[in-house]
TrEMBL record:
Superkingdom of origin: Bacteria
TM spans (from-to): 98-116, 203-224, 231-257, 263-281
Family of this protein: Belongs to the 4-toluene sulfonate uptake permease (TSUP) (TC 2.A.102) family.
Cell location: Cell membrane; Membrane
Identification of the protein by name: Probable membrane transporter protein
Topology of the protein relative to the lipid bilayer: Multi-pass membrane protein
UniProt-listed InterPro entries: TM_pro_TauE-like (IPR002781), TSUP/Inactive_protease-like (IPR051598)
Coiled coil: none
Keywords tagged on the record: Cell membrane, Membrane, Transmembrane, Transmembrane helix
Species: Nocardiopsis suaedae
Length: 313
């Protein structure tokens, strides 16, 4: 019972993150499942099975709001499904001992990406670049493979790349990536079922994760409006980096550092994490001050123009 409660909290927290950032549900939930003791393949399989429900609901909502570019969905979803199926069968064939450092390494890289991206750039897209049709298929293939082997990564791989193209408005980037993810999660789940069988997936865990995500959806919408995505992204990225650094050190995937060495690594991670969150908070507050100052200047200019026009009238 205690495990189910923890998994419900995991699903709740992961949906809060994904709802506020448009990415990182899989990365966050898989990381937390590993922390509570799941093995890598089962963790990824369980998360993807739960995501079938969450991505279906998300895609339907985006479709109703007109946030989906269907040509993009068609061109990215099918390669993504192929990559996810391949990644799931690959991960299923690894032993737990071999899979743990592999997944931790992927999650560490994704967490570092999320931390750096939101700390240094906030939630704004990069400068526009031409979007070519031949770019979407490899993007989907890589994103699907990383998503299945890392327990997440479809959003962190696909969303920034499409935002950087400058050819699709941001709301349709998020809506299209979320809608395409439904097919990716179905393919990944099929791959895990083929490789692990039903014994490799805990249906109760998946159901509790899904329930937690559904409960979190309204609060996630509130967070989008009130908590800066830049700050939340830095906080979540640091959490993922910290937990997967701990996994790598514990599995012996890196040379033995000894007690003092491990303490130094943890101290460095904590210091970078705290500095990143502080930087994001400072950048957000500076942006708010700049917006207020610009508003005051615009109002002052409008008042001055009115004063000049008044006497002439």
């Amino acid at each position: 019972m205690r495990t189910l409660v923890l998994l419900g909290i995991v699903g709740f927290l992961a949906q809060l993150v994904d709802g506020a950032l448009g990415m990182a549900y899989g990365v966050t939930s898989t990381t937390l499942l590993l922390v509570v003791g799941a093995n890598p393949a089962s963790a990824s399989a369980t998360v993807h099975l739960a995501e079938i429900g969450t991505t279906l609901a998300s895609g339907a909502a985006h479709w109703r709001l007109g946030n989906v570019d269907w040509p993009v969905v068609r061109r990215i979803a099918l390669p993504g499904a192929v990559g996810a199926f391949a990644g799931a069968t690959f991960l299923s064939r690894l032993s737990t001992e071999a899979a743990a450092p592999v997944m931790a390494g992927i999650l560490l890289a994704l967490g570092t990406y999320v931390l750096v991206r939101f700390t240094l750039r906030g939630a704004r897209p990069r400068p526009a670049a031409p979007l070519r049709t031949r770019f979407l298929a490899p993007l989907g293939l890589v994103g699907g493979f990383v998503d299945a082997t890392g327990g997440g990564g479809w959003g962190p791989v696909g969303t920034p790349a499409l935002l950087a193209s400058g050819r699709i408005e941001p709301r349709k980037v998020i809506g299209s990536v979320d809608t395409a993810e439904f097919l990716v999660t179905v393919a990944a789940s099929a791959g895990f079922l083929l490789g692990l069988g039903t014994a490799g997936v805990d249906l109760a865990w998946a159901a509790v994760l899904l329930a937690g995500g559904v409960l979190a959806a309204p609060l996630a919408a509130w967070i989008v409006r009130h908590v800066p995505p830049r700050v939340l992204g830095s906080a979540v990225g640091g959490l993922i980096v910290l937990t997967n650094t701990r996994t790598l050190l514990g599995t012996g995937a890196v040379p033995a550092l000894g007690g003092a060495g491990e303490a130094a690594v943890y101290g460095l991670v904590w210091a970078v994490w705290a500095a990143a969150v502080a930087w994001s908070v400072r950048a957000h507050l500076a942006g708010r001050r700049a917006e207020r100052a610009a508003g005051r200047h615009a109002r002052a200019a409008g008042d001055a123009e009115s004063d000049q026009v008044g006497p002439l009238a």
